[in-house]
Structures are given as C-alpha cells and as structure tokens.
Design brief:
By secondary structure, the protein is α/β, with parallel strands linked by helices. It contains ten helices and five strands. The chain has helices spanning about 15-25, 35-40, 65-70, 90-95, 110-125, 130-140, 145-155, 160-165, 170-185, 190-200; strands spanning about 5-10, 30-35, 50-55, 80-85, 100-105. Strands 2-1-3-4-5 form a five-stranded parallel β-sheet, with helices on both faces.
C-alpha cells in the first residue's frame, strides 16, 4: 500500500478490539485500539486521520454520543458503527448523523473490509458528495409512491409490522415493496438503501 490507512477501533470489549484489529492488520490496515469513546475523544487531537469503527453500546458515553461529539468538533473522519442484534433504530440514527455504514455483530471479514473501504473512499472523496446526492435523488424518484412510503418508514428505523400498520397494508405487502425498492435502488442491504435515502434527504 502506498500510504498507511489507519482504523481506530473504539470498543469496550477487549475480544472485539483484538479479533477485529488482527483481521484488519492482516488486510494491510494500521490499527489503533481505544477502550472507550471517552478515551478516544480525550486523545482526539493526537489521533491520526483515518476511519473510526465505533461500538454503539459502551459505558460512560455510547457510540451515538461519541459520534455527536465528533460532529460538534467538526471531525470529518468517517464512522462505521458496530451494533448488537436488534439495534437497527440506533443504527439508523447513526447513519442520519453521517455514519458510512453499520455492521451487526458478529460480522464477517468481507463485510467489515467493504465497509471500511467505503469509509476511506468517502475520506478521499469529500467533493463527490453533491454528485452522490443528485444520483440518489434520481434513484428515489424511480420508486413508486408506496415504495417511497416504505423507504421513509425504514429511514425512521421502523420494523415491517409498524410500517404496515401505519400504511394500512399487510406486513407481507411491506416485504414485497421492500424487496422491490432494494432491487430498483440496486442494493442488497438495508444500510445501502438507507445511505441512498439519506443522501437524497429522505428522513422519514
């Protein structure tokens, strides 16, 4: 690699810091582990520019609070959020606040590397955001009105049943619309669909 690509792992679980750090080092990244969001923020001015792998559930300050503080300080390092199972609402909040992606633990190596590569692309491509927003708006415009309604529900972090109740349709119909909109957007995961939605200004 031509340049060192630093990943800051902010997680209070020692096993996650070690296993993820090992995985990333083997893939050619430089890794800096932090035992808490508080410790990371305290040392932020000395931290090298890079990507932040940020756990949501931590003592003292959770990942969302750390992310808010980073935004308040004008730190532009891209964030990938790590969540436990069922924390989709939290992950949606994180993506609204600018996170590149969210990964549910346990995650596969390929998924982690893809998310981090996306983060570094964002770091290198700040000026490309306006064009991404325009592309996203065009993609959203290609959805039917009902598919856009379902996407808005997803952007609020709502489960299929709640979206179905709000729209007066069955959960099965929501699943069909969700599958169709993901096909039209050309995505395979909820986080990718949300990234397009938020780029286009869809906030639910």
């Amino acid at each position: 690699m031509d340049e060192k690509r630093v990943v800051h792992i902010v997680d209070d679980e020692d096993s996650i810091r070690r296993s993820t750090g090992f995985m990333l080092k083997k893939s050619g990244f430089s890794v800096t582990p932090w035992v808490s969001g508080v410790e990371f923020l305290k040392n932020l001015k000395h931290a090298e520019q890079g990507c932040i792998l940020l756990d949501v559930r931590m003592p003292e300050m959770d990942g969302l609070e750390v992310q808010q503080e980073l935004n308040a300080r004008g730190i532009s390092m891209p964030v990938v959020v790590l969540t436990g199972h069922g924390d989709v609402t939290i992950a949606v909040q994180a993506m609204k606040a600018g996170a590149v992606d969210f990964l549910e633990k346990p995650f596969e190596k390929a998924v982690l590397i893809t998310a981090i590569e996306t983060a570094f692309e964002r770091l290198a491509d700040a000026e490309g955001r306006a064009s991404r927003a325009a592309d996203a708006t065009i993609l959203i415009a290609g959805l039917s009105a009902r598919e856009q309604d379902v996407l808005k529900g997803l952007a609020q972090g709502l489960p299929n049943k709640s979206i179905a109740y709000d729209l007066g349709i069955s959960p099965r119909t929501v699943e069909v619309h969700r599958a169709n909109l993901m096909t039209k957007l050309g995505v395979r995961s909820l986080s990718e669909a949300l990234r397009i939605a938020f780029s286009a200004g869809v906030t639910g």
